[in-house]
Each structure stands twice: as C-alpha cells, then as structure tokens.
Design goal:
375 residues; alpha/beta; Spore Coat Polysaccharide Biosynthesis Protein SpsA, Chain A; Four Helix Bundle (Hemerythrin (Met), subunit A); 2 domains; two-stranded antiparallel sheet; 14 helices; disordered C terminus
C-alpha cells in the first residue's frame, strides 16, 4: 500500500521522543493531533513509524482514539534504524512536528523538542484560529479573551456542547435583566450579553482544537445564539412597553418579528438547498462572500459588507453595551427593525437578479447544441 504521508520518529533518545509524542497539545496527544490534522486535510494513506519500544504505548493511547473515529493508520516499528526501504510513501514528516498541511515542505509549523515547546505550539494553534476569524471586533478583541479560555477548557477535557449550553443560559438571562427597564438594568443586561458574545466563541474554538465538530453542535450553537438574541430583544421590548403605549409596542414587535422570521427563512432555505451545514455563519461564507464583483453595483456590495459587519454578533453586542452606557439602548429596536427589512430586500433582490442568469445558462447551452445540429 502506497502511503501519502508517513510520520516518523527516530530511535535515538526514544524516552525523550516518547514524552513529546504523547504529550497533550490543547488536550490532544501530539501524535494523535498530527494524524487527525492530516485526515482533516484529506490525506488518505497515513503511516506512522516508531521505535519498537513505543509500540505498546501507541496501542494504548493512540490506537483506541483512531478506532473510535474509524481512521486507519499503518504502523511500522523498528529496533535500530528507520526501515525506509520497506516503506512506500510520498512524504515524510517528523512525528514531533506540529503538522500544518497548508504549509510548504516540511509541512510543520514548529518542531517540538521539549515539553516547554507545548505552550508555543498551543499559542500557534490559537493564533491561527484568531487570524482566520472574520470581523474586526471578534478578531482583535473577543478572540484575545476567548481563546485562552478555550485552551484551558481543552486541557480539562470539556465538551463544546456544555459550553454552548452555559452560554445560551447566560445570553437568555441577559434578556430578563434588560426587561426591568432601568438604566442600571440596561447596562448590566448589555454587559452580560457582551460577555455571552465573547464566550460564544469558546465552543467553536474548543471544537476546532479538539476535533469535536458535529452537525448537532452546529444546530445547537445556532439555537443558542438565536435564543440569546430573541431573549435580549424580548426583554428590551418589555422594557420599552413600560414607557410607551401598548399598541405602538405591539406594532413594532410585529414588524421586527416578521423581518427576523423572513431573514431566517431565506438563510435556512439557502443552507438546505446548497450546503450540508447547519450553521448560519455558513450563509456568509458560501453566499455573501462569494458574490461576483461583476454584475453587482459597487454601492450594493459595499452596503452588504457594512451590513455583514453590523449584523455580526461580536459587533452588535458591543454596540448594545455602548448604547446602554449612553442611556439610549432602546434605539436599538428601531435600528434593528429597519436593518432587518433592508437585509431582506437586498437578499430578495439578489435572488431575483440571479434568476434570469440561471435560466439563461441552460437555454444558451440548448441553443448552441441545436445550432450545431442544424449546421
């Protein structure tokens, strides 16, 4: 069997190598992490070459985790020298390197030679997640708080779904606080909502660090985010009704709810039709971020970019807190209602603008085919 990638460990100082390969990096043994990273990158044939003295430990600590994930790895052991003449492989990577398949050869970002290198490796993993995060508030502020927390949670073996549950409770609680309607309640409720926004990143970060992403986790995270948002706005509407007529409040609630429901419906319909994801964040990655520059108005594209930023949780949660400090948090109700309907109009426009192109494409192919036959 020809292997795409082989992770190898030299025989010399195998006690030292053992300590590194089986040392946990963000809660996952280094050797197991490298195998999972390769598998995630689409590598099919993976081999591991270890000194014979490490084989038993591999079978005890690494093999069960691979079997649980239905990952097949070819293990070869040796006594004194690496048996490369018996191994048919395309790429060799040191097993004590932190593998990054996106890098050029030798395909690792750092070589771990001592337990003290573990912290540096974890820092690199966290920084990679931070830099890949869209949104300036999340990337430059929220992630600097949430990622250190996520690293500790990974070491403790915490499952991401428990973090999602705790964060959902925190976000829902913010709505009950805001509903009291006082300045102090607005500030405290908005602060709790902002904290929930920061901690909201922990479950996703933890899932990435520990390779525990799942469809259920995506659904649960989406439910958690929207439950917290609905609770916060419900509390805000209750507070607003205490100082304004009920008829006007009901009309505002109806307009807001209709806009929110229609927006969710459009996003979920796209996800079901075009992706396998259950996360609303995928709508941005798979649709809005891929809108063609040609054929769309520069003003419209700029409006979409600004709207995406303002409607991201990391941005509007911070905005809520700042408005609460200024004593004008209730303005959010009008801004959010207007923003929802603008977003709906833009999505409907984009949908029907794309429709003629989708119809014209097969018709054009049909005309070319029939034209060729006629000739």
């Amino acid at each position: 069997m020809k292997l795409q990638v082989t992770l190898f460990s030299e025989a010399k100082n195998y006690h030292h190598t053992s300590q590194i390969l089986f040392e946990k990096v963000a809660g996952i043994p280094l050797l197991l992490r490298n195998i999972l990273l390769l598998k995630k990158a689409g590598v099919q044939g993976i081999g591991v070459v270890l000194p014979a003295a490490l084989a038993e430990r591999y079978q005890d600590e690494i093999a069960p985790a691979l079997e649980k994930r239905h990952i097949h790895v070819v293990l070869k052991t040796f006594e004194e020298t690496l048996p490369w003449e018996t191994i048919d492989t395309q790429t060799r990577i040191p097993a004590n390197g932190l593998v990054d398949p996106k890098l050029p050869a030798p395909y690792y970002s750092i070589l771990l030679e001592a337990p003290s290198d573990i912290k540096e490796a974890e820092k690199m993993l966290a920084e990679k997640i931070r830099l890949s995060t869209p949104g300036p508030v999340a990337r430059h502020f929220n992630k600097r708080i949430s990622l250190p927390i996520s690293l500790h949670l990974a070491k403790w073996g915490m499952h991401p779904n428990w973090i999602t549950l705790a964060n959902m409770i925190l976000g829902i609680f913010s709505g009950f606080v805001v509903a009291k309607g006082t300045f102090e309640a607005f500030v405290l409720g908005a602060f709790i909502f902002q904290m929930a926004s920061i901690f909201d990143g922990c479950d996703g970060e933890l899932a990435k660090l520990t390779f525990t992403t799942s469809k259920f986790g995506q659904y649960f995270d989406t439910i958690s985010d929207n439950s917290a948002l609905v609770s916060f706005f419900a509390g805000l509407f209750i507070a607003y009704s205490k100082t304004h007529t009920h008829s006007f409040t009901y009309a505002l609630v109806a307009c807001f709810s209709a806009g929110l429901g229609l927006l969710f419906w459009q996003m979920i319909a796209f996800l079901k039709k075009n992706t396998q994801s259950a996360s609303l964040a995928t709508f941005n990655k798979e649709y809005l971020a891929k809108l063609p520059q040609n054929g769309n108005s520069p003003f419209l594209l700029k409006l979409i970019r600004v709207g995406k930023t303002l409607m991201s949780k990391d941005c509007f949660s911070l905005l809520f807190f700042l408005l609460a400090l200024l004593g004008i948090l209730e303005w959010v109700l009008f801004a959010a209602t207007g923003g929802l309907w603008i977003a709906n109009v833009v999505l409907i426009y984009l949908k029907y603008q794309r429709l003629p192109r989708e119809i014209a494409s097969p018709l054009q192919g049909f005309r070319q085919t029939t034209g060729g036959q006629a000739q």
